[in-house]
Amino acid sequence: MGCFRRDRLTGQVAAGLVGVLCVGALVYGVGTASARYKLSDVGAWLSAGAKGLVVHANGLAGKVDGKAAVPAQLRGHHIKIVQDGTTVLLVDEDTGVVSRIDPSQLTITGSRPVGGPGLQVLAGAGAAYTVDLVKGLVQQIDPLRLTPLGAATTLTAPLGQAGIDADGILWVPEPRTGKVVPFRGSGQGAPVGVGEPGDRLALTIAAGRPVIVDGTSATALVVRPEGTQRINLPAPVARARDGVKVPAVADGQIVPMLGDGGALYLLNTGVGRVDSVALRMPAHAFEPPHVLGSRVYLPDRTSGRLLVFNVDGNTWERPIAATRPGGTIEILVRDHMLWVNDPNGAIALAFDPSGGVKRIKKYDDRIPGGARRPLPVQAEPGGGRGNRNGAGGGPGGSNGVPPQGRPPKAPVKKDPTAPDPPTPAASGDGGSVKVRFTPAAQPPGVYPVTRFVLLDQAGAPVAGASPARFPANTRGGTFTVGGLTCDTTTHIYKVAAQYRGKDGKAAYSESGDVGATACTAPGPATALAATGVNHGANLTWGASSGYDVTYDIAWDGGTATAAGTSKSVTGLANGRTHTFTVTARNGAGSSTPVSVSETLDPAAHARTYNGHHNETTNTYLHTGPATTTPRDGSFPKGFTGAVKVICQETGDRVQDQQDGSLVSTVWDKIEYGGRVRWVSDIYVTTPGSDSGTFSSTLWGCG
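Structure tokens predicted for Fibronectin type-III domain-containing protein:
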């Protein structure tokens, strides 16, 4: 249909985005449903544009349990649905008008123009925002009345697709500045640096936390409440022509990224590891990949199918028809389920984390009317009935896992008689790179495989790979290349199926490239502690989980590095609170920083000494460490009583009038007679009194 389109600027909306629909009817209140889900409900709103409807589907039961028509003024426009709990919004991308659906009655309760083309609407954690990606305007709106809340903020346009994290903070990428800007309510927070101005930035909310992929520098920044973690990605990420494709939302901590030529990268933000997988895929148009459980779902718009790659098995599962060839495939991850919808199709798909799939008939008329009656949760939804390849056939669809398969129309090989290459995946840690592979299911008419070998990027066997080869009948295996340096180098490999061609000579059927650094980004240091010393602090911490880790230490006015788990910091001012931050780093990236504060309080280290050198006269006390400051009492002649010395400081030079050899610029801050005063160190029995030097037993005052 001509009213459907995709463009980079408005291709994604938010965690609650369901789909694009074209509508051409005016009906109110056809069926009712509620977004006020009970714990047993796992549902989503889906567009059903062929009949001008929006429907609510229960994912566990695999059935529609409510539907409503959309208003006439939206007829023929590009509409998107944004949902978050009781907030359900229809966004007209052509006019910038946003309408709210009352989820309990399914009636339009209000509409309001909030922008124009390039508008993104987001809802989450009870808040709603509009982001004008073209003009750079960010505006919080009331999710019920759709009216502005506070003043709009203007950022440097064009903006990247924004997202809302688990804490309700809106994050807006600003590629021209190389930063991502947070908003809480209508207030703008301090921008977070991601890369250089002009870098290609893409945002994913993974497990509720922002992850910004910099496709220019091949890095990813994970933003957490305690700080940021930077993870280096394989170098080929930077060579993707239009940047890697990432989903708007990831259900867990793994962020999938699709690069050129079937290069798939799986960033595990929990442990800082990046897996590189070389998928043998057709040269089709793909939407961003999604991960749920152990499977990666790749929407193939060219074929209209959903390609399913099992990461644990390193194998393809049978593709699933999602739409007609060239049609629209919308994917939503919500409530630990993955929803696949063709806005104009009659069937939607709901996948659970185990790979089970429900086929939902969107136009089923047998749905509850009036007040919504939630469908019961089944212990085994679908009962295992239906076609295990996801084709349906049982009530509610299939709960089975699709079997192993091959992607449609695999790429043409240079030698049609060569066996299909294996599928490799690479990851690094501990100074080595492991390349695991799974042999392909061979088509008829190809030469038999004689062995599997690991090749370098130039196509030569890798010396030192362990093992050197795998037999032809293996079901898969792992090559290990050790003795590598943990730095930013991406080590590129491929796995080949070796065979004998028609000339009898050995030949290779090579996989695509996979690459990894020889280590993973380190975890944070643990148990950071600071012990104050005079003008400094001794820091200790537990080792990071990473390999070949260096620690960066920072404090106000200084930085240092350490290879071990301790560091002494000197040159600090006493009488202040200092904050120390330790960040672990290696060649694969850096950890989230950890911090500790320590107050250098001289009074906590005060000592008691006696007076002396007061035999012939009274000794004046002062309000400061100088003879020019006002006098504040005195030690009486012959005073040898106890004095509490709080700290010491350099002041005026004092020479005793009776004994000219007693000279000092050291002054003691003392507590005497119930008051704090100052006296020359000559007249107190500190260890350095007679030598005119500071005493190691006392701290400096500042």
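The first strand starts at residue 20 and ends at 21.
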